[in-house]
Amino acid sequence: MAVVEIAGEVVNDKENMVALKKEPFVTFYKLNEGKATPKAKFLVNAKKLNSDAMIAWEEIELMYYDTCSSCHAAHKPKEHLMGEWEAYILAMQTFAKINDDEKDRILRFMQAFAKDGIVKE
Q1: Of 53, 86, 93, 114, which residue has the fewest beta carbons closer than 10 angstroms?
Q2: Helix axes 82-96 and 53-68, enclosed angle (nearest 10)
Q3: Which residues pair with 18 in a beta bridge?
Q4: How far apart are CA 34 and CA 106, in angstroms?
């Protein structure tokens, strides 16, 4: 096990969520119960951690392209800003037949790699 510390902003109307920043809204984590704090420590399986950020995103990237390209050409994350992706992903959730957890994972990926995203390739 490894300790991971996350710092961000508690979302005003969703006290169980911490975001990187509020505008555009990028979720770091969401608690099932209780109120979030700006800083939190979590125990995670050390085998699931990787120092290469691109490998860490690989699984969800494959999920996104497999899911979204079944009906149309999947859009590249850089085609939109972080704040735009939530509406697009939410609108397509029913057509893509993905649950809320899958939607949230895809949204984090798309926001991370968006034009103004936090991941720079």
Answers
A1: 53
A2: 50
A3: 10, 29
A4: 25
pTM over 0.85: no
pLDDT digits (tens, 9 = 90+) for 24-50: 667 777 888 889 999 989 898 988 888
- Residue 80 CA to residue 97 CA, distance in Å, equals 22
Largest CA distance in the chain: 41
pLDDT tens digit string along 78-92?
A: 999 988 998 999 999
> Which residues lie closer than 8 Å to 26 by C-beta, 6 or more apart?
19, 20, 82, 108, 111, 112, 118
Long-range contacts of 80-83, Cβ-Cβ distance < 8 Å, separation of 24 or more: 80/110, 80/114, 80/115, 81/24, 81/114, 81/115, 81/116, 82/24, 82/26, 82/111, 82/114, 82/115, 82/116, 82/117, 83/23, 83/24, 83/25
Length in residues, the chain? 121
DSSP 17-76: EEES-TTTT-EEEE-SSS---SEEEEEE-GGG--S-HHHHHHHHHHHHHHHHTTTSPPPP
